[in-house]
Amino acid sequence: MNTFRSIVFSSVIAGFIVGLIVTAVQQFGTVPLILRAEVYEKAAEHKHEASAPPHAILVHDHADHDHGAQAWEPKDGLERNLYTAGANILTAVGFALLLCGFFSVRSGATGEPISWHEGLMWGLAGFAVFTIAPGLGLPPELPGVPTAPLLSRQIWWTIAVLATAAGLGLIVFRRSMPAAIAGVVLIMLPHLIGAPELEHVESNVPSSLSHQFVVAVTLTSLVFWSLLGGLTSAAFAYFDRPASA
Amino acid sequence: MSQSQTAQAQHLPVATRQVGRLAQSLMAMTLGLFIVGVVGFSHIDVIHNAAHDVRHSNAFPCH
């Protein structure tokens, strides 16, 4: 289990560092925008409840309340940010395990340790696969902006990620013209089918706020994936030394 | 892994070692995807609320 242990060690260390850095970056980028959007979201909910007849409030609470009226949620401030940090670290460790699996297969096949630069390239591929591709059809959304049903968006997101990963793989690793064409078509396919969306979107969250959010999410994600690719590959090259020596 | 195990692994044919490495890599990748899936995609309210800001910040489908 030497390889598995090296992968887990590298991923936990790199994921922990990247998770903490990204939590700090989010405090200046995405989080203030989420908090501002929630002011609009709550205002809209109150207006809705005040204007609805009493029986409609019950229906709203049971059928429509996304956050779950009774479910636990962290208190605003430190507690909420601690949970955000924890979730960021877990996400980073999870994606690091994925990247490191590729590093391990690659260095096993070539016999060469993975370089930080190749790691960075894999990180950028992760940025394209997990942020750019699904974000074209489903742009980053602020709270309070109505969207198509959650499950349909999660399914489309997954299809876009898989198609983009497979398409890039075909282009990069099968150096042939037909494979490259198939790769490009595969990457385009989920977008030609189209992401699930609502016919009419009405929101009191200003569109300028939504636009700022798209930019903040994309830039934060670029930092996340660049750091994760570079750090995970450096850590894995270190921990995997005895096996490749 | 103990020294005797390491010595044993080095005597295995290259293809067998490659398969072992591939299997371990796939196991790690599956674990990684499982973690991301729970944090980013679980429909359980408590997990959604704890990871709420991260889901929005990563542009995972939320709400």
Largest sheet of chain A, in brief, is:
none
Shape type of chain A = globular
Strand content of chain A: under 5%
Number of domains of chain A: 2
Helix- and strand-based class of chain A?
Answer: mainly alpha
> Count the helices of chain A. How many?
9
Low-pLDDT stretches of chain B are: none
Tally of discrete structural domains of chain B: 1
Q: Give the radius of gyration of chain B.
A: 19 Å
Order of helices and strands of chain B: HHHH
Q: Rough shape of chain B?
A: rod-shaped
**Count of β-strands of chain A:** 0
Structural class of chain B: mainly alpha
Compact summary:
With 245 residues, chain A is mostly helical.
Model description:
The complex is a heterodimer of chains A (245) and B (63). Chain A has helices at residues 2-28, 30-51, 54-64, 78-110, 116-137, 150-173, 177-193, 207-239, 241-244. Chain A has 245 residues and is mostly helical. Chain A has two domains: 2-144 and 204-244, no CATH class; 148-197. The longest helix of chain A has 33 residues, at 78-110. In chain A, 38% of the residues are buried. Mean pLDDT of chain A is 90; it is low at 55-65. With 63 residues, chain B is mainly α. Chain B has one domain (3-57). Chain B contains four helices and no strands. The relative contact order of chain B is 0.08. Classes of the chains: A mainly alpha (245), B mainly alpha (63). Chains A and B meet through helix 1, helix 2, helix 4, helix 5 and helix 6 of A and helix 2, helix 3 and helix 4 of B.
